[in-house]
Amino acid sequence: MWQEAWNGFGGDDWGYDVAVDDTGNVYVTGWSYNGAVPGNDCLTRKYDSAGSFVWQEAWDGVADDGGRGIAVDSSGNVYVTGYTRNSTDTNWDYLTIKYDSARNIVWQKAWDRGLGKDDDAYGIAVDSSGNVYVVGYSTGNSNKDYLTIKYNADGETVWQKAWDGGNDDWGRGIAVDSSRNVYVTGQFYNGTTYDYLTIKYNADGETVWQKAYNGIGADYGYGIAVDSSGNVYVTGYSSNGTNSDYLTIKYDTNGNTVWQKVWNGVTDDGGRGIAVDSSGNVYVTGYTRNSTDTNWDYLTIKYRQY
């Protein structure tokens, strides 16, 4: 067991996502203050299985940059996505970077809708052939839309798909299965409040199914995972009318709800990340508030397969 802290130039340093390779090396990404103005860089760090620091790479564009999602493949290539600001406006664009195992940049891609508005990537996944998938949101003329992009192993765009529900829609989590079906989750505005929205695309980017979850109040999807049978698991938080709770849902490969689980603590609680093991056990993590103060605490839950 170990833990590691990293303090950069004395400003805010924020870890946003983590990935682990087949030998137990740990990779984290986020952003770090570089001492300048504007001063955030996309920072990626590698630790070995014992927690010893191996390397770090900072990506410094013309303004603020940050990592939000990270993935690693079986060859040790590392993939990071997040945001950057370009040189022509002050808005965010998608930023996706591929590093090889020696931390050299293989390729980097920015995506800008071209409307002078924010485009921000949150989740990333990679398949066994090195195709890379990212999701987040792109701002249209008035509202945010889900935007999912598939790149091939050389960083060339294969397809991109926007989902527009007519109001603000925000992709946050992404997963890919062995058949290269792609799953994304997040939230959309239904005209009154926000609901979970989970979409399955096939390998060509065609929609297979989409499922919304509408609870009592606002519902926000954050994390998604898929098992070897094509079952899909999403987590986030759902308002119970007073506070927010963890809400975790299992869908079968056809998008039918198998089960849903709510975890209700003392006050506000919410899921952020999710994983499933080879036995079908499900792990979710996020935050809760305890009964003695108003601060956030980690909360991790294991659900057994059934």
From TrEMBL:
Superkingdom, taxonomy of origin: Bacteria
SUPFAM superfamilies linked: NHL repeat
The organism of origin for this protein: Candidatus Desantisbacteria bacterium CG_4_10_14_0_8_um_filter_48_22
Protein name: Bulb-type lectin domain-containing protein
